[in-house]
Amino acid sequence: MSDAFSTSMKPQVEALAEGLKNNMHLGMQLSAMKDGYAEITLPLKPEHVNEERVMDTGVMMIVLDSCMGLAARSLVDAVTSGATVEMKTSFYQPICQAGQSVKAKAKVVFKDEMLYHCEADLWLGTEIIAKAVGTFKVFLREELINRLKAKEFAYLKPKS
What we know:
By secondary structure, the protein is α+β, with helices and mostly antiparallel strands. About 25% of the residues lie in helices and about 40% in strands. It has helices spanning about 10-20, 55-75, 140-150; strands spanning about 30-35, 35-45, 80-90, 100-110, 115-125, 125-140. It has a six-stranded antiparallel beta sheet. A hairpin with a 2-residue loop joins strand 5 (about 115-125) and strand 6 (about 125-140). It starts with 9 loop residues before the first helix and ends in an 8-residue tail after the last helix.
């Protein structure tokens, strides 16, 4: 495992790297995830661009959202899941085309007991093309599974 990843996060990073390969079939690649920072690269395919032949803003948002969520999750040394609470994105230049590669870089700028506030930039080489800020909640994977199971069978519980 390279210096771009915490050694204590090895199980988390391995699970995320596998999941990101198939994230919406986009092909995102996790390059770094450590100490409140994450980096994702996306080689652009024809399905990532719109009718104007530039990177679709929805694809940009997915990459930025994923990167910020990973930055938040990097601060927890356990296998986690994350949830986006809110997100705002600004688009600067629609210059990315199929065959190019973009890189998202995100960091946690503030965290409290429950929420992680993050920001991320999307780059094409040295050109910034979009920026996002967002708030995220991180769940331990086991805790999330137990919550979902409890809700799944809630209708079977007697009402008091």
